[in-house]
Write a structure and sequence with these properties.
CATH class of the largest domain in chain B: Alpha Beta
Strand order of the largest sheet of chain A: 1-2
Structural class of chain A: mainly alpha
Distance between the termini of chain B: 44 Å
Helix content of chain B: 40-55%
Oligomer: heterodimer
Number of domains of chain A: 2
Order of helices and strands of chain B: EEEHHEEHEHHHHEHEHEEHHHH
Radius of gyration of chain B: 20 Å
Shape of chain A: globular
Number of helices of chain A: 9
CATH superfamily of the largest domain in chain B: P-loop containing nucleotide triphosphate hydrolases
Bound molecules: adenosine-5'-diphosphate, magnesium ion
């Protein structure tokens, strides 16, 4: 999961969109995922996510995300498969476990949803600078700067956190600690104690960022302070309409 | 002008005082170097000047710190930052943006610098540190030394009347370190900016600073003109500060009664002294 959220510079159509538009697009994709129970539509949304990644020049990251999420989904898929019951019984397993028609259908829906709804947020964060995001939150959505700063600082630290995490895991692995075990509980047992010092350094770092902001006039900032303008362009309007259309089609399809 | 009077500070959750009975006056236009072993309290001293203490780190605080007559208790660090630009020791956590340009913009925006003045300030501060080419780079992609320059540029753009830098050359190679100090000297001489710099490399301080504050275990043990402080090279050695060779050499000559006039604090002076001894 190394480097899955940090900003990837670029000049694509998507990079140039207003941060607000990117936020709306990714949120609407999420909404569409949650409204729809239609397999085809959900798969289409996942493909749309990949198309977005491609257009932004970050297809490798898109695929990496897809792969990572698919792995996580496998566990969820199995659980759903066994616990959701309804419709015809397809297979009867020992221990009174059943695999039903509805179980299969819903397991796919939930997994597709998870993938389809997680990707757009990660992709959006990869092509949006946190400063720009916090600036539009403040200027366009009138969120107090304090909260916007906290939110964006926390997001900025996620990739740093992840990088350090994998650094520690590599260091442990090179010392012969078996972390590549398939057993997920064993893995958690190894990783958890490593998380604590990491958490402490991360909190320290966020604190450092807050101090640094403070001694650079954080409290003097007003809504008008923002230097860059963030105009809503035609392309932004277009993408917003597209987002609305997406949600609309999800409603239509699931209503039908 | 900074007045620190009888200041003692202990961090909360800490057993011993980080600063003890500090008295220090810094006049406008000074160029002061602060030196001392790790843990001596140098960074803490910078915190009490820029208001991080008491506003961010709490603890037992006795005494007073006044900036141009205002007690730091009564001003937020943001308000103090209008006068004092600080570059912190931990460069990584200091960055608030993901791209260099935004990092410089950040303070300018907060200070509500007029829009038509922003671009000239941005480009000139990048240029002064020789990092114009890094303007659109992401911070992640920079080396430690480059980040250090970005951090300094971000503060320079704000044009404070006092600059407070905590080990600004720790990640830099010797050549860049000298360049930074040359820049500081320029700012000090040409624009009268007060410079307060924590620095481990005593060579740089003896070359560029006018005054030296030596710290050990939370106390100021020496404070004065660089040359006067350097007279105490053996005491300095005892608290873990190794003076430049020329200083120890000339101190030894003075101790043995050789008349060389004054302590030499840089190579040029040492050369002059040697010539004087040979010819005289
Ligand atoms: N946030 C903190 N909380 C508690 N103790 C601290 C903190 N920061 C520094 N100290 C302690 O204060 C003393 C002085 O530290 P510092 O000012 O960072 O020294 P220096 O910058 O000279 O290396 C050290 O003993 C250090 O452990
Ligand atoms: Mg320090």
């Amino acid at each position: 999961m190394k480097g899955f959220l940090d900003y990837v510079p670029g000049n694509s159509f998507l990079h140039k969109l207003n941060p607000l538009t990117k936020l709306v697009l990714s949120l609407m994709i999420c909404v569409a995922c949650f409204i729809s129970e239609n397999h085809l539509l959900l798969v289409a949304i996942i493909l749309l996510n990949l198309a977005i990644a491609k257009a932004a020049g970050i297809l490798p990251r898109g695929l990496m995300l897809l792969k990572g999420l698919t792995k996580i989904s496998l566990v969820i898929f199995l659980l759903q498969l066994l616990f959701i019951r309804g419709g015809d019984i397809l297979i009867t397993l020992p221990l009174n476990l059943l695999i039903t028609e509805r179980g299969v259908a819903m397991a796919f829906v939930i997994v597709f949803r998870l993938i389809g709804a997680t990707m757009p947020l990660a992709l959006m964060l990869s092509i949006t600078q946190m400063n720009d995001l916090s600036n539009v939150l403040v200027t366009k959505l009138k969120i107090p700067y304090k909260y916007a700063f906290t939110l964006t600082t926390a997001m900025r630290f996620i990739p740093i956190f992840a990088n350090e995490m994998s650094g520690i895991i590599e260091a442990q692995a090179s010392r012969g600690v078996e972390l590549d075990t398939r057993n997920i509980f064993k893995k958690i047992k190894f990783v958890l104690p490593l998380c604590v010092p990491l958490l402490i350094t991360s909190v320290k770092k966020i604190e450092g960022s807050a101090i640094s902001a403070e001694i650079r006039g954080f409290h003097l900032r007003t809504r008008e302070s923002c230097y860059k303008g963030y105009p809503i362009k035609k392309s932004d309007v277009g993408v917003m309409f597209f987002s609305a259309f997406l949600v609309f089609s999800a409603i239509i399809v699931s209503g039908a | 002008m900074i007045r620190i009077e009888n200041l003692t500070f202990k961090y909360r959750n800490s057993k011993k005082n980080a600063l003890e009975n500090i008295d220090l006056s810094i006049e406008d236009g000074d160029f002061i170097g602060i030196i001392g072993k790790s843990g001596a309290g140098k960074s803490t001293l910078t915190y009490v000047i820029n208001g991080i203490i008491p506003h961010h780190y709490q603890g037992d605080y006795y005494g007073s710190v006044k900036i141009d007559g205002d007690d730091t208790f009564d001003k937020t660090p943001s308000e103090l930052s209008l006068k004092i630009g600080s570059v912190l020791q931990d460069i990584d956590s200091q960055m608030v943006s993901s791209v260099v340009e935004d990092e410089i913009l950040y303070g300018l925006e907060n200070f509500s610098i007029p829009k038509d003045e922003v671009e000239p300030r941005l480009s000139s501060s990048l240029k002064e540190l020789g990092i114009s080419s890094l303007r659109y780079r992401t911070i992640d992609s920079l080396s430690g030394g480059q980040k250090q320059k970005v951090a300094i540029a971000a503060i320079l753009a704000l044009r404070p009347k006092m600059l407070l830098l905590d080990e600004p050359t720790s990640e830099l190679d010797p050549k860049s370190s000298v360049q930074i100090f040359q820049l500081l000297r320029d700012l000090n001489k040409k624009h009268g900016i007060t410079i307060i710099v924590v620095e481990q490399k005593i060579m740089l301080l003896s070359e560029f600073a006018e005054k030296l504050v030596v710290m050990s275990e939370g106390k100021i043990v020496f404070n004065g003109k660089v040359r006067d402080v350097m007279k105490h090279s053996s005491e300095l050695e005892r608290i873990g500060i190794n003076c430049p060779r020329v200083v120890t050499l000339s101190n030894r000559l003075i101790d043995r009664g050789v008349d060389i006039g004054k302590v030499c604090i840089n190579l040029d002076e040492a050369e002059a002294m040697a010539r004087g001894l040979i010819h005289g």
